[in-house]
Amino acid sequence: DVLVIGAGPSGLSAALAAADAGAKTVIADENARIGGSLGYQRGGGEAASEVLKELSDRVLAHPNISIRTETLAAGYYADHWVPLVDAKRMTKMRARAVIVASGVFEQPAVFHNNDLPGVMLASAAQRLIYRYAVRPMQSAVVLTANEDGYAAALDLLANGVRVEAVIDLRHAAGASDAATRLEQLGVRIQRGKAIYEAQAGGDGVGGAVICPLRADGGLDEGQRQKISCDGIVMSVGYAPAAALLYQSGAAMRFDAAVQQFLPQTLPEGVFAAGRVNGVYALEDRLLDGRRAGNEAARHVGFAAPAAFPVPRAAASPSHPYPIFDHPAGKNFVDFDEDLQLQDFFNAAQEGFDNIELLKRYTTVGMGPSQGKHSNMNAIRILAKLLGKPPGEVGSTTARPFFHPVAMSQLAGRGFHPQRLTPLHSRHEKEGAVFMQAGVWLRPEYYRQRGKLKPEIVREEAMAVRKSVGIIDVGTLGKMEISGPDAAAFLERFYTGRFANLRIGMTRYALMLDESGVIIDDGVVARLGEERFYFTTTTTGSANVYREMTRLNTMWGMRVGIVNATGAYAAVNLAGPRSRDVLAGVTNLELADQGFPYLAVREAEVAGVPARLMRVGFVGELGYEIHVPADGACAVWDALTQAGRVNGIRPFGVEAQRLLRLEKGHIIIGQDTDGLTTPFDASSEWAVKMDKPYFIGQRSLKIIQRKAPRTRLVGFVLDAIAEYEAPKECHLVINDGRIAGRVTSIAFSPSLQRHVGLAFVAPELAAEGGYLFIRADGGRMVQAMVSKIPFYDPAGQRQKDAKDLQAA
Amino acid sequence: MNYLRTSPLHDAFSAVQPVWDEAHGMRIASRVGGTDAAIEVLALADLSCLPKAGLKGPLAAQWLKAQGVPVPPEANTWAALPGDGVIARLGRSEFFLEDGASGGMAARAGSALGTGVEGVYPVIRQDCGILLAGPRSNELLVQTCNVNFAEMDAAKGIAVMTQMIGVGVLVIRTNLRQLPCYRIWCDPTFAQYFWATLSEIVAELGGGAIGTETLLK
Hints:
heterodimer, A: alpha+beta, 6-stranded mixed sheet, 6-stranded antiparallel beta barrel, 28% strand, B: alpha+beta, 5-stranded antiparallel sheet, 5 helices
């Protein structure tokens, strides 16, 4: 029912409250023993141990509580899913409520030579003593800004360490019980002072140089004083161990009084308790744990006392700026990454004045400790440089897993979804070499004994040009939209006009985003007055469908939208003999009069109900045949059988790319990028600016008024060896400056020369002009801007199909 | 329809040389390895052949009722159709129907709807339909899905739309011969990946694939 993360006093108290209410409760703690800071922050006395013993006895005896020690809660995922990582395995824990009682990370002070051996956090010194029976040093200077430093000094004294002095950053620190005891034991307490530098000696620290702290936070270096010691113990503040809270979606705010980021709002079923929640006094932590335990129990349906307020820290346990400049540097902020204070000054000077940018520039927090001991100080430094409070600088969210986790715990079966078209086995049989296209596998080309890929691709292309080829285009997105507003919806969604599209005809469709950038394209077929079938790009189908359903939620139009991508298979039968082949497997009237270019028909192909579209992506007489997935093999087998007499040949993605390039058809994502508008892509013909509205129209109207930025043009090369030809992404250079780039290029076997598409500066876009493309090795290759299509510019291959067949 | 339908799992079964049969116009593996003993541990079967229909639209529920189809009252629930069929309500206004070994309500509804009527739009369903059954079913599910199926009460008729091994699925829980049983449907283009991955886990758990011979009787 309830997962409690952290077995400190607040976590144990929370678990007891939840379990007492009847909730099955699991406590996870990364340490070997429960108790958290009660086990080592003892203040030289027994009170903490007594509290711990009482809590432990109750928790261990409670039938509703199970404890997992040496178990790290490594991340937080949706719906209270928390991976619990122990030495041997990872357990996927899904709790109904999660209490984060993960405590805090003590933070170091920043001063010269703070990386010397012997400079350590107070909690580290206390852990050495109480967990490992190690005396951390012989004589110590304790630097503090809170009462925990005094308690640490007492722990040191109680375990044989000489405490030379307690240096308190606070000018107005009151005389607490611990301070009084220390003074009674002869320890000097110096308030309003700081450590200017640690000095080396022996194997590590040889002394601490202290000086008064001015009211402005600087050091009065003129009054330096050296104290000999072999250890410096720091207790200047904490940062919350709030990674799981951030990951859960908690809103955190910086509390100036506590000097800590605290949860402001928590997601449903997530609770915070103890020091991570800004509650520091031991009795308050126990109370806060009980409150969180009660709330969690109630959340999962058990009767438990109502919420009650718990005071947060009265005085801040964290100093607002325990960071001190030094002319010799070596005042480390991030010990993993060797980052000194000056590195942060440099970053801010360079303009990296946002915590996310600062992190990337300096690499703060990117080492093994993932910022646990450096991010808070980095935020404080940046805040001071910007003159803002830390809350305005913001914090970063540590991604899960926020502690290192052994690879062995993560080893296992990998789940990598793979989509195959229903014709996959047919491609395998034909010797396909597959390529990855998003999550799909598609035939790149079909192996031929003794031939290399370029030759095969050209042969496949020429089979389409000369006779007939067949390609699996089942990866295209396939959608249906029906209803009284279907045409009106498409008018809004795409740039073209569809209200006037005649039943039985198709039209190219271009999709823009709100900024007027091309994001998808396809073909829309009108099957009835209120019924359309349309395609999207292979990788775009899910996004197009999601966007359509989102928009229709807003627009409230009377349409039903169906993503039928996986339910339909599709092939493109193309080439001058395609009609002959198709005629053998369907009774549909295929002559131009009955089935003209750009028409769509519904008929049976090989007994399978099919939608046939006469489209010309590859520039030949062709039929895109869409059938239910379970009929795909029957159709493929029938077509390849019927086409045998014409030498039908399957062709792959590479040949299709070549064929469409010869026709100058663009591929979204290859011949466009994240900034390409229809004006850039020379696709104005597909955009009806006089429509009342379409997505991106408003932006296009603005862009239209501006000077053109770039232009997609066709180009041809004079005869050139393949290895000398430019490649995709090679740059167009004009007067020594970058003036564009190649988006597509290939050798056209039909035209016997290289053809390509390139974005160029508008002044270079005139037909007949010359471009200079910087090819491999820096060679400049001259290209001539050419009209597109390169192949069959008049579209005769579609118009005079009969004549072509006769020829 | 005048063709032999191909199951999205046809190629996966070809490798194990099953006894083939034809059901509902589809070539299916009726027997695998000559026995259904795997069901006593954990079994996977291909039920993609069963006729399906889908529809959506504001008047979809009303239209189904008019056809005499029992309509689940709430989204994400399912109900039985005559002859071991199922109807799942996928949302406020979307439904998935599948006939069982006998009965033909789904097929009839699909035919009656045709290209749609006012406020009701057909949704083509070519799903890969899988049966997962046996005492160790939940052990497979915890490895492949975040939903806690162990707590699911078959009697409540919950229809879960979630992801298993990265694939969107519809899952319902039934019982088969007093054993836990799940029906899982996914997009047919993921079928081979889905089946191969589940088969690996099933094998590790001591189970295996079974044919449809006894399931469709």
